[in-house]
Amino acid sequence: MYRAYYKLPGDLRTSSGTPTNASYGFALMFRKLFAGRKPDFGAVVFDPPGPTFRDARFAEYKAERGPMPDALAAQIPDIVRVVEAFNFPHFRVEGYEADDVIGTLTRMARERGDEVLIVSGDKDFCQLIDDGTRMLDAMREITYDRELVRKKWGVPPERFVDLLALIGDKIDNVPGVPGIGAKTAASLLETWGSLDGILEHSDEIKGRAQKALQEHRESALLSRQLITIDRAVPLDRSLDDLKLSPPEPGALNGLFRELEFYSLLSEDARVEAEAGDADYPVATDPDALVSELRTAPGPVAVEPLWGGGPAPVADLVGLSFCAASGRAVYLPLHAKGAFPDPVRAWFADPAQPKVAHNVKKLAQVLAARDVPLEGVVGDTMLASFLLDPNKLIPHRLDQISKEFLQRTLRPWKRLVGSGQSERNLRDVAAEEAASFAGHRADALFEAWPELSRRLETEGLARHLDAHEIPLSFVLARMEARGICIDREDLGRLGEEFAERLSEVERRAHEAAGHPFNLGSTKQLSRVLFEELGLPVLKRTKTGYSTAVEVLERLAKRHPIAELVLEHRKLSKLISTYTNVLQAAIHPKTGRIHADFQQTASQTGRLISTEPDLQRTPIRTPEGRRIREAFVAPPGHRLVSADWSQVELRILAHFSEDPLLLESFRTGADVHRRTAGELFDTAPENVTPEQRSVGKTVNFATIYGQGPTALGQILDVPRKEAEGIIQRYFERYAGVRAWLDQTIASAMETGRVHTLFGRIRRIPELSSNSFMDVQAGQRIASNTPIQGSAADLCKLAMMRIDRALTDAALRARLVLQIHDELVLECPEAEVSRVAELVKHHMESVAELRVPLLAEVGSGRTWSEAH
Questions:
Q1: Given a cut of 60, is residue 518 above it in pLDDT?
Q2: What local confidence, expressed as pLDDT, does residue 267 receive?
Q3: Residues 289, 293, 294, 296: what is their CA dihedral angle, to the nearest 10 degrees?
Q4: Which pLDDT belongs to residue 277?
């Protein structure tokens, strides 16, 4: 309960205002417990409201803990209802803590031979662990057994109480023995066997520990009493009374609907008079269908049923149309048959309003049938994203249906099956397809009015119409077009990387003195820290850290660390790029057709998947070599254009800082200018190393990095990084003022907005966790900048796409990578297209500083950029 309360935002409430962050988090975690687990018996145990026997023994027990927050206490009755809806027994025994009840149940179960799983993150339960008892920390997904307890604490479970009796427990205000830490306690227990043995031989113990043990003997004994779990609590039920039975779906779904936990509804959840129970007919007369669609009083919801792979070969199997609630009609389409002319004309008619979910995909599958799409007035996926980019990622129709209609849509596997029994969509009977697609079109039809109303309320309706929907058509054409890849060159590159990887492995084995698996953290840790004796810089929950930042620091001490870094880099290049890119080349087109997603990034940036092209490195030799495999077809060139320092220019626009404005208006090197301010030197005297620091600090401002993070990047002490940040904000006071104002506004409203009015809600700002609030403040400071840059890029893409068509040019957009646009262009058009692209990128919006775009061209992507 506490973990959920402090982890989830405090503004998570029902529409009537009831707080639900703890109850929702509890339900979410509780349900997750049973993924792959089928316990025979179980119980949830709560602490009693009053004092326990420990309070009577020690008045200061848990005295440091504050009272339970009112907002959490108010949710306990609903948490109990969640437990009961899952058909789970629950206990609360007056005078005993939950630990004692769990200890008693564990003893009873073990005595009759049952295995026990204690679900808790409380270390006190380590004393209960044995060969048949484990403890699951569900939040961290760590399961403790005897060996892990010994590894983490240095003692076996049966000595764990004695360990805590010596070191105490600050959380519960258990005093322990002052001055004795975990390592000393574990060492003493290893020598003398138990707390009693230690106290009996305290005069033989040397150093400060002797005095501490002799002076605080009674404190140690009291601490042991407080920490020891009572395993003999009188219970009013036997283990057989805790037999579990599956929850009744109706009761569970009913509670989830009442508490508005729509994402937890089961697949079979339904509401009364659900439109999904309607009979969705199969259309046999396209003329009659279109006549009905043309007389619809409002927008018609259109849901395509498609399969057969990504663009441009996705097979459109059928279309479902819904013009009134519960009255969807399904039109099956033959694989190679002609598309019905009346339906084609209806899709091409801009006067016929249409609503889709993922208009980009609808446009693609229709284009594959040479059917134009006009008149789109709504998209539920894009609308959901605009209303709250955080909440329903990736904003599927089933998620939207649960959220806005409290209805669960039928899963895809129910239509076609799964695994070896999966059917080809073409083999599904038209009546089955009609039921599935009709159900979705019906949900789409019903969800759109509510989404549309909310868009109007938030002032986002115009953004959907003017930005996101038009961009969908641009992206649909980009994806269908794809980009050419030189498969043979990519294959040669993969072989080069593999040879280099093999050589690095050989040298690493030589440095270690024997072969080992460089990809195994366990083996690598043994080599680095045990065999070679390198210093341990950081630990993880399971051992020594071999993270990149650790290896970079160790590289100064031993060459093997540099070899491991090189091995990881090459392994990633092979697995993430050369192998993935080769697999992504479409066999029919010889091109890569990535999926550019509008709703996957909370900042609004486009994200490319299948494959992910946006992480393709550029500044390394290997990255440039990978980009050489992206080529223009014969008679063409690739044109690449990207903005210069667009995010810093947006920062200058928002903050109106005089120094930033002057730097960009005069064309000065802003990184050199910042370095000069930081190092108190004239810009012309700034060294390359100082300019690098200036560049790092400029971008650290955008990403809200504090002194710890900046110190790690610059490899300087935290105190020095703190001074750098302070000097930066002294020089750029306008930036500091804007950041403060933006964060203050976000704390008050819970949101920020971009230059074009797109909003991002920040639930972290209302969290009960200080760290979450800090993270939320960093989001508040960088989202207006990153989000505005994303909006500028999208707007430029739309204008360039339109301008190319209007000018009757054959060049077309093929890639978007962060602030870079890549076009495929006939050789004869290169200079004209470069001029057009530069013009539209630099004039896409009027800022207080000029936008600057740099354009290049070449036979390959590497040459062009």
A1: yes
A2: 65
A3: 140
A4: 52
CA–CA distances in Å: residue 829 to residues 432, 637, 667, 796: 51, 9, 30, 19
pLDDT the model gives residue 274:
43
**How far is it, in rounded angstroms, from Cα 563 to Cα 508?**
6
Predicted confidence at residue 313, as pLDDT, reads 60
Angle at CA of residue 768, ends 764 and 774, nearest 5°: 45
What phi and psi values does residue 474 have, to the nearest 5 degrees? -65, -45
Residues 192/202, Cβ–Cβ less than 8 Å: no
Question: Considering just the CA atoms, what is the radius of gyration of the chain in Å?
Answer: 32
Determine the Cα–Cα distance for residues 174 and 169; give it in Å rounded to an integer: 5
Residue 142: strand pairing partners: 137
The span from the CA of 202 to the CA of 239, in Å, is 43
What the block records as the tokens of 43 is: 């119980």
Q: How many CB atoms lie within 10 A of CB 559?
A: 12
Structure tokens at 54: 């420990």
Distance CA 593, CA 329 (A): 32
**Cα–Cα dist 107/101, whole Å:** 10
Residue 325, both tokens: 């609630």
Measured in whole angstroms, the distance separating CA 665 from the mean position of its chain's CA atoms is 38
Per 3-state DSSP, the chain is made up of helix, strand and coil in percentages (nearest 5) of: 55, 10, 35
Chain Cα centroid distance, residue 652 = 30
- Side-chain half-sphere exposure of 406, counting CA atoms within 13 A: 13
Question: For residues 3 and 244, is the Cβ–Cβ distance under 8 A?
Answer: no
Cα distance from N-terminal residue to C-terminal residue, the chain: 53
| Average pLDDT of the chain to the nearest whole number | 90
Q: Which helix (H) or strand (E) holds 303?
A: strand 300-307
CB 290 within 8 A of CB 345: yes
Beta pairing, strands 133-137 & 116-119: parallel
Backbone angles phi, psi at 751, to 5 degrees: -155, 165
Residue entry with tokens 């300019």? 691
pLDDT value at position 308? Answer: 64
Q: Tens digits of per-residue pLDDT, 661-673?
A: 999 999 999 999 9
Strands 44-45, 90-91: pairing kind: parallel
Residue 273 pLDDT > 60, yes or no?
no
What single-letter amino acid sits at 371? V
Q: Is the peptide bond before 611 cis (omega within 30 degrees of 0)?
A: yes
Contact 412, 253 (CB under 8 A): no
Packing angle, helices 646-655 and 658-666, rounded to 10 = 130
Exposure string over 239-259, b if 16+ CB within 10 A, otherwise e = beebebeebeeeebbebbbeb
Q: What percent of the chain has pLDDT over 90?
A: 61
Tokens of 71: 């907002």
pLDDT band per the 50, 70, 90 thresholds, residue 347 = very high
- Rounded to an integer, the average pLDDT of 614-628 is 84
To which H or E segment does residue 377 belong? strand 376-379
212-221 average pLDDT score: 88
Q: Which runs of E-coded beta strand occur in 138-248? A: 142-144
Q: What is the Cα 565 distance to its own chain's centre?
A: 26
Q: How far is it, in rounded angstroms, from Cα 796 to Cα 845?
A: 9
